[in-house]
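Q: I'm teaching a short session on how sequence maps to structure, and I want students to see two examples side by side rather than one. Could you give me a first protein with its sequence written out and its structure tokens following it? Keep the formatting plain so it prints cleanly on a handout.
A: Of course. Example one:
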Amino acid sequence: MSQRSLQWLALVILGLSASPPSLAADFTADQLRAMLAHADSHTPVDLSGKDLSDLDLSNIDFKGANLSRANLFASRLVSSNLAGAKLTHANLNGAWLMGTNLAGANLSGSSMLGLVILGGTVKEKPNLANANLSGVRMIADLPGADLRGADLSGANLGVDMKNQGMGQMRTDLSAANLARANLRDANLSRSVMTFADLKGANLVGANLYRVKLSGADLTGADVTGANFTEVDLDGTILKDVRGMGAATGLGTALNRERAVY
């Protein structure tokens, strides 16, 4: 097993240890499919607080279901439609999200550690455009993911330095589309955001400590109060960026790297 695989296995184990023990899910996958078959967007199925862990829920249209506080640990949601669904404070640790449509979903306060994004025949990343991810705890491989207009305010995507026994596990948002995303007060420390599209993003008060931002495009972004200590800004586009004078460590980072204005 590769070092990378071991790292993600450790994250899944951490997610399991943080979840309450469960003998079985509240429904089978077939029962859930039958429930959703008779639902519509006007009368969404209420699955709040339900245990749906370790089920194969791939290729299902959840029709905006209420999944608040639901346990979806290690569930397979490959190519499923969760657009507009309510997933506040849900447990998505170890969930399979290849090709999952989460556009406009409310994932605020959810836990998304060790997401499975790679593998199998489906190669598409989850669609998180305009999703509410405020206050989430997430570590995931999401290079090239669609997060346009997403709300990541107060989200914690940073490295947990207390759990690095198997190597540093970090969020990868390289080449991700974060245009107009709200990252206010988000913790992005040590994340990989090379060549990310951050045009017009709100980075006010964000923790960017040691983030790899080389080649990223921050045109028109607001970085007031953001922490740029030891950030990699080689080739980063900083055209019309607001609040640069009120960002911590930005001057030092600019003197060290070759940013583009």
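Q: Perfect. Now a second example for contrast.
A: Example two:
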Amino acid sequence: MVAVEIATPYLHRSHLDRELALLPAGSRIIEGPGVDAQLDRCRAEQPDLVVCGMGLANPLEAEG
């Protein structure tokens, strides 16, 4: 499994330096994602699995 995008409302980089270093090279880290933009990126990637909150899950479920 490859994480295509890691999104969070707020990212305190100095607190998470060690964890961020463990992510694979090229991981897309998005801070403060807007739902519409995130949905557009998700649709473009067409992932097999999406782990997300309800704000993103409900529109994706409605699309099938």
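Q: What should students look for in example two?
A: Point them to this: The chain has three helices and two strands. Also worth mentioning: The mean pLDDT is 89.
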